[in-house]
Write a structure and sequence with these properties.
Keywords: Acyltransferase, Transferase. Belongs to the thiolase-like superfamily. HMG-CoA synthase family. This is Hydroxymethylglutaryl-CoA synthase. It is an enzyme of class 2 (transferase). By secondary structure, the protein is an alpha+beta fold. It has two domains: about 5-165 and about 325-385, Thiolase/Chalcone synthase (Peroxisomal Thiolase, Chain A, domain 1, 3-Layer(aba) Sandwich), CATH 3.40.47; about 170-325, Peroxisomal Thiolase, Chain A, domain 1 (3-Layer(aba) Sandwich). About 35% of the residues lie in helices and about 25% in strands. It contains 13 helices and 18 strands. The strands form four sheets. Strands 1, 4, 5, 6, 7, 8, 9, 12, 13 and 14 form a ten-stranded mixed beta sheet that branches. Helix 3 packs across helix 5 and helix 9 packs across helix 11.
Length: about 400
């Protein structure tokens, strides 16, 4: 039985910062941001968007009535959770009007969580072939104003429907995974900002990639020749390129050129959104599928998932016949085209707007936010979500 990605959707907030202007404001050479880390724009989340609303908006336009009935498992991958007890999946389940006879859970392991969700979904489909699973990767990356990590912030979510007989990508079973207890990036319960050892994290990302890629080759019998493209988790777009370059000497010039060209295409969306943690790998995949004009049905796409702390996995999938007919390219193009640039002063003001930390009630102006699903405020310690079109 084939199992894989049947639908895939994406959402990012309606405002962004130009990285050239951010660099000037921080007295940094613009090329350090646009070339050095490979970022052009950075999505900014208004106070009316959180990990719940981002995920729900990402799924909203890809689901039809059949999906809402057949989805009996919602897996919410995030490191931007809003409650220590209640899962983000329960909120999203209600906002999307899904079948009540469903499981709904939240999973966490830094940027790896959505990949874990997909693998859990595959097991569920094996046991329940008529079911569908909604897997969500949703995050807001915040490091603080004028910090070393500021240029790698971002906000967004990717939603995927996993099912039997998928119409976009069949997931193969040659997965290889690796865990090691390291402190390259972490966020203690008491902190609203992450801690990161940047140099160490970059080294571990590349080390994990080399280990799981080597093991994948041994397990699958495939090498770079069999990969039409490889997508990476992208905390910033140059990170995946650094890892890819470590293995390109093992193949021909033709294959190197193909992989590098596809890599560039796969970073288009990420370059203009920033880091979305759990969704970053799948935003890269979506960018490749929607922006590439020469990907053929039956192509094998490799994927490297990495979550600091750390867990890594390499796996692959096969593009299905006429997969492009099942992408949501028009809506995603409109999403990008409708975004508004904010000046640095506006961005800093928005960044400083935070929800009360003392349990106070607050009402938010959702009319300034064009998204269908928004956070409208907090009442009696409960977040109030609104679907404007329900």
């Amino acid at each position: 039985m084939k199992i894989g990605i049947d639908k895939i959707g994406f959402f990012t907030p309606h405002i962004y910062v130009d990285m050239n202007k951010l660099a000037v404001a921080r007295n940094v050479e613009p090329e350090k941001f646009t070339i050095g880390i490979g970022q052009s724009q950075m999505a900014v989340a208004p106070i009316t968007q959180d990990s719940i609303t981002l995920a729900a908006n990402a799924a909203l336009k890809i689901l039809d009535d059949e999906d809402r009935e057949k989805i009996d498992y919602v897996i919410f991958g995030s490191e931007s959770g809003i409650d220590h007890s209640k899962s983000g999946a329960v909120y999203v389940h209600q906002l999307l009007g899904l079948n009540p006879n469903a499981r709904a859970i939240e999973v966490k392991q830094a940027c790896y969580a959505a990949t874990a969700g997909i693998q859990m979904a595959k097991g569920h489909i094996v046991l329940n072939p008529e079911s569908k699973v909604l897997v969500l990767g949703s995050d807001i990356a915040r490091y603080g104003l004028d910090t070393s990590g500021e240029s790698t912030q971002g906000a967004g979510a990717v939603a995927m429907v996993i099912s039997a007989n998928p119409r976009i990508l069949e997931l193969e079973n040659h997965n290889v995974y690796l865990t090691n207890d390291i402190m390259d990036f972490w966020r203690p319960i008491y902190s609203d900002k992450a801690f990161v050892d940047g140099k160490f994290s970059n080294e571990q990302y590349i080390a994990f990639f080399n280990k799981v890629w080597t093991a994948y080759q041994e397990k699958s019998g495939f090498d770079l020749n069999e990969m039409e493209a490889i997508c990476f988790h992208l905390p910033y777009t140059k990170m995946g390129l650094k890892a890819l370059r470590t293995v390109l000497d093992d193949t021909t010039e033709e294959v190197r050129e193909r992989l590098l060209n596809h890599y560039t295409t796969s970073t288009t969306y990420n370059r203009n959104v920033g880091n979305i943690y759990t969704g970053s790998l799948y935003l890269s995949l979506l960018s490749l599928l929607e922006q590439s004009e020469d990907l053929k049905d039956g192509s094998r796409i490799g994927m490297f998932s990495y979550g600091s702390g750390a867990v890594g996995e390499f796996f692959s999938g096969i593009l299905q016949p006429n997969y492009r007919n099942h992408l949501n390219m028009k809506d995603h193009k409109q999403l990008f085209d409708s975004r508004k640039e904010v000046l640095i002063e506006e961005y800093e003001h928005i960044f400083k707007e935070t929800l009360p930390a003392d349990g106070s009630d607050i009402e938010l102006d959702i009319m300034k936010d064009p998204a269908s699903i928004c956070l409208a405020g907090i009442t009696d310690h409960k977040r109030q979500y609104v679907n404007k079109h329900s």
